[in-house]
């Protein structure tokens, strides 16, 4: 299949951006009046998650009725034969949102024939809009951004995503602890999408997780790649959006060192 034209890509980015901004505004409008439901222990969802997804779905499907839509808060949609699929997290960082900890975002990625071509992450509390089109670089509020050139693990600020209510014997916790000993610092911030956006913007050097879903990663992976960063599985194998593992780094050197530390850890 031939990739969409430059003009079509612009239209897709424009529509996705509008959806992300309005989804974000929806999240802010629900602040302090939402009720919280537990999907399972410490896995929260609110009315804001659903309202944001419904709005994003409406905006995108109104404009592109034949496109496929994959969102976290399932809206039953019939798969179509279109090569386009929007991969949407209407609120990444629900736990943070619930506590009023202002680190959460709307994440909208677009696949064409299985390839990520557009990515948008919007942080509604800071009005930070991260965008990427495949082959055209990564941007923060319209300004080009890139990953840092840090190559020594000792100089790297890292973030890990662990599932909520993780058992302390989980290998993910062991990896977290071993990286605390080796990197400059390891944070756990609660929004995988925003973590990837921060990596693309040169604010951190590495991010990893072994428990993510496609909507946590779709937009962020394209942003990191377009910002010159590297994305793979924890053991260095090629990244697969539909598998839960990701190791994303600013440089190849960091990737190699972290991979090695993970091998020694488990
Ligand atoms: C969660 C966040 C978190 C990650 C969890 C995700 P949600 O997404 O991305 O950083 O550690 O695994 O489920 O549920 O807030 O959209
Ligand atoms: Ca969730
Ligand atoms: Ca998420
Ligand atoms: Ca979510």
UniProtKB/TrEMBL annotation:
Highest taxon of the lineage = Bacteria
> Coiled-coil ranges per the record?
none
Annotated residues that bind Mg(2+) 1 are located at 72, 89, 92, 216
Biological process (GO) annotations held by this record are: inositol metabolic process; phosphatidylinositol phosphate biosynthetic process; signal transduction
**Which top class of enzyme applies to this chain?**
hydrolase
| UniProt-listed Enzyme Commission number(s) | 3.1.3.25
Return the protein name.
Inositol-1-monophosphatase
Q: Which organism is it from?
A: Planctopirus ephydatiae
